Design the sequence.
C-alpha cells in the first residue's frame, strides 16, 4: 500500500509518467421491443431484454495529466492485457520509463511476455515499464478503478447492444472527459495510512 502511495506523490515528469490501469467486464444488452416515448418525451424501455454476451473494458489513465483511454476487447486474456500494455508503450513512445499501477491478477504478470516473445524482445518491452501492484483487497488504491466507475455511471448506464456501438459511445465519452478533466489530486498519504489504517500494520513487541 505504501509503495502505491509513494508513487502517487511523485512530481509530474513527462519522461517518467505514472499511469493506472484496470479492467472490467461489461454486458451487451439489446432490446426485445423498440423503446417508446411517453407524451412528456420520456423514453421507456420494455422490461424484457436480450443478452448479447460480454466484453472486457481495459482502461488506462494518467492522473497527473487528467487523461484516460479505453480499449474494448472480446475477452480479458493475458494476450489482451499485453496488447493493451504495448499500446500504452506506443502512446508514451518518448518516455524513458512508464510506471503502471495495477492489481495483481494472474494475467497481469510481466513473465507472461516471455510466452509470446523471444527473451530479448520480452526484456526490451519490460524495460519500458515499472509495475506497481495494489495489495489484496486494496483495489480502492487504483485510480483507474475510480475512472471505470465514472465511465459506467456516465456512459454505460443504459442498454448497449453491440460492441461497435459501445466503442463509439466510449470514444465520445473519452473525448469529452479528456477535454474538461483536471489532474487528479490524490490526498491520502503513507502517514495518513499509518494513522487511519493502523490495524493493518503489525504490532511489534519491544
Sequence:
Amino acid at each position: 500500500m505504501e509503495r502505491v502511495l509513494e508513487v502517487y506523490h511523485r512530481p509530474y515528469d513527462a519522461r517518467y509518467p505514472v499511469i493506472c490501469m484496470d479492467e472490467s467486464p461489461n454486458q451487451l444488452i439489446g432490446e426485445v421491443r423498440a423503446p417508446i416515448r411517453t407524451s412528456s418525451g420520456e423514453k421507456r424501455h420494455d422490461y424484457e431484454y436480450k443478452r448479447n454476451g460480454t466484453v472486457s473494458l481495459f482502461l488506462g489513465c494518467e492522473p497527473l495529466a487528467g487523461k484516460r483511454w479505453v480499449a474494448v476487447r472480446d475477452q480479458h486474456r493475458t494476450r489482451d492485457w499485453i496488447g493493451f500494455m504495448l499500446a500504452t508503450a506506443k502512446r508514451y513512445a518518448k518516455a524513458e520509463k512508464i510506471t503502471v499501477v495495477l492489481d495483481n491478477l494472474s494475467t497481469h504478470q510481466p513473465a507472461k511476455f516471455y510466452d509470446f516473445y523471444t527473451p530479448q524482445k520480452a526484456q526490451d518491452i519490460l524495460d519500458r515499464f515499472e509495475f506497481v501492484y495494489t495489495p489484496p483487497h486494496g483495489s480502492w488504491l487504483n485510480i483507474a478503478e475510480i475512472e471505470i466507475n465514472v465511465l459506467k455511471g456516465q456512459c454505460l448506464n443504459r442498454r448497449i447492444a453491440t460492441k461497435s456501438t459501445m466503442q463509439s459511445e466510449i470514444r465520445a465519452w473519452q473525448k469529452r472527459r479528456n477535454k474538461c478533466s483536471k489532474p487528479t489530486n490524490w490526498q491520502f498519504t503513507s502517514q495518513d495510512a499509518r494513522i487511519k489504517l493502523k490495524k493493518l500494520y503489525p504490532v511489534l513487541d519491544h
Summary: The beta strands are 18-31, 36-37, 43-44, 49-62, 67-73, 98-102, 129-133. The chain is about 30% helix and 25% strand.
